[in-house]
Amino acid sequence: MPNPPLHPLQIDGVTLSDTTDFAALLSDILRGGGGAGALRSDMMPLDWVARVYPTLLGGPYADRFSDGVAACLTAPEPFVRHQALLFFEQFPHAHGGDRIEELVDGDRALFAGVREPPTSDTDLEWSLLRALGARAGEGLGRALEQARRAALAAGKAQAVMAALASADPDWVVAHADAIVRGSPDAYAPMLRQIQRAGGDVAGLGARIAALGVVEPNEFRYWVGRIVRDPAARDHILAALPAPN
What is the pLDDT of residues 92-117, one digit of tens each? Predict the structure, then answer.
């Protein structure tokens, strides 16, 4: 026998039912419409979505709702795509999140070089890789394998590094030289997470310093901010190449 129809559910003026087109609904809401209730503290439409989704968990609408967000990952508007990426970074276990891995393996034309918001110094590919990192950190799907590949791709490691170094610190330490040569800006989250994992941050930091690819003044600043042990800090900074 067919499943009985779902009872309608109303949240902040939005009615969810068996006939709701969740892709259209979430797209409209993430554009700033849809009749969804908002709080004065909300900075963007995603705030309402992120507030409502946890209330749906365990019920019949949660997967449909997050699938609707997943459909927005390829919306025509960069603003909508950006918010959908942020949703899956915040809720990596949400149904439909495996779409992140599919997009990472795609041509990324909707993400690479597309800046959102306009004042940001990062692009939507960075946000895509951040969402991938969140899934990698939870061991979901193929995300860990893809995050490792991203870490070795020139200029891509910083977005996944905090999650990857937390999820797989041994792999990160083993590949640290190649990672930092390709993405010198990845060293800060790398050092922070390896220290949290109880790894040899002094040895790792000295290896990074000796590569000669980091900007010395910025490196000194971040080592001073991140590395707690004074002796470890001194050991790391002593490995910086002497100025010419």
Answer: 999 999 999 999 999 999 999 999 77
Distance of alpha carbon 157 from alpha carbon 209, whole angstroms? 17
Reference 10, options 50, 33, 37; nearest CA is 37
For tokens 């991203």, name the residue.
150
Strand ranges (DSSP E) for the chain?
9-11, 14-16
- Nearest Cα residue to 74 out of 61, 66, 84: 84
One-letter amino acid identity for 48? W
Distance, CA of 23 to CA of 67 (rounded, Å):
7
> For 11-37, how does the pLDDT look when each residue is reduced to its tens digit (9 = 90+)?
888 889 999 999 999 999 999 876 666
Distance CA 217, CA 234 (A): 14
Let me know: does 150 contact 103? Beta carbons within 8 Å.
no
